Amino acid sequence: MNVLTSARAILKLLVTSIALLLLTVDSNLVAQAVDQASAEKYNEGLALLKEKNYEAALNTFLEAKSMADDAGDTSTASKSENYAYRLSYNVGVGYVKQEDFEKALELFNQGISMEPTYYKNYKGRATVYKAQGDPAAAMEAYIQTANVASEAGELEERSKALAQAEGFVAKAVQSEDFDQVIENGNLYLQFSESPNVHFYLAHAYNQKGDHQAALTHANDALTLDQGSRASKAKIHFEKAEAYKFIGQYQDAMESYSQAAYGEFKQRAEHEIEVLSGSE
How many Å apart are CA 272 and CA 243, to the nearest integer? Predict the structure, then answer.
């Protein structure tokens, strides 16, 4: 009886071991098949990319990444994502040209979620907001573009993005919409510093009668400005205007004397003569 029981136990153990072995082999075969499928899908994406079928290539790389993630194939997943976040920008630009801004924004955001250090998708997003007439969102997106581009060492792209953001403030100055200058300028300064923006704000605040705020921004502009005397003359002039309306005439004359250069020379000297006679 004991011999029979032992034989049955051994047989049961053998059956279990064989089943586990078969299961392991089967699992490995399945994993290999999935790995091969994700690699084939990746190669399919490369072929579409070579054909310049960018949107189809993007969707194929995304599919390859998903398959590779499920299979634990980190190499294929990483390579697929590397193409996908770049193609998100390229395909998104195409939708901007078609004025399908919702789809374009979806693609740029998708690219940012995959690779937050790739500045082009931020630039694409800013382009969408600008086209939609949303200066606040566009300015923030352009400044984000500048920051990410700077971290990537793309200093020329950083300068271009900041110029785009400043452009929203300058445009409001040109149209003499000083409330909008103040709104856009202060929004810009939440994200970055600029002597030009401080100057625009000094001018706007003088026009709105808040001369103390104008004085503050004129001083900030002068601190930041690394340009020539001609560049600083306009800032000194706004500073002088603020002092004049506050009633600090001596300080105003000193600032007008700093502004008496180039196109501001005649106006500044006239103001000095007027103030000298009022002392």
Answer: 12
